[in-house]
Amino acid sequence: MINDAVRGYFGFERLPFDRSVPVGALFASASHQEAAGRIAYGIDTRQITVITGEVGAGKTVAARAATARLDASRHQLIAIPNPQVGARGIHHAVVAALGGVPRVHHATLIPQAAEYLAAELAERGRLPVLLIDEAHLLSHDQLEAIRMLTLCRDRDYAGGRQGGSGGRVHACQASGIIPGPRGTRGACPAAGTCLSSSLVTRSGRGPSP
Fold this sequence. Notes:
By secondary structure, the protein is α/β, with parallel strands linked by helices. It has 8 helices and 5 strands.
């Protein structure tokens, strides 16, 4: 195999620079630190954060570095590496990650996901952080689902009539991180609708081990 040949030729005991490199061992270049900092800012301000860059630039590595620094007592990471699960798959993953049993019908699964996100923040004090990789594969329905799950409305919105069961108001109950190749924002069918107010950051080639 190629990997065995590389190890043998250079005398490595294991293949270097693989995905198992711990966050603390990553090379903290200026572009890597900037990307991770912008992602952290997006989480702190509860925005949808879109990360774009060339293939292999380190978008996922930067997202991993930013989320690894999160306080587990205050944040709940929900990672979806493959968005081809569809809009229903996103809602299913949210409910399952938060300890629930996803409902069968999508019409009932959607409010269930919103309720679990709200409960995680209001009752457990942990902000859910939704990380969805390979953003260029997201469909219009999926982008709308992400927008609705991370939608921010203050408590005076529409006279407070947007509350769910128990009088909850849909108020920034999750933060979204969406890494994708360069041009992702323009390629997304719903970019003008879903991502017009989001934080967009460009990842360079810095985040290498």
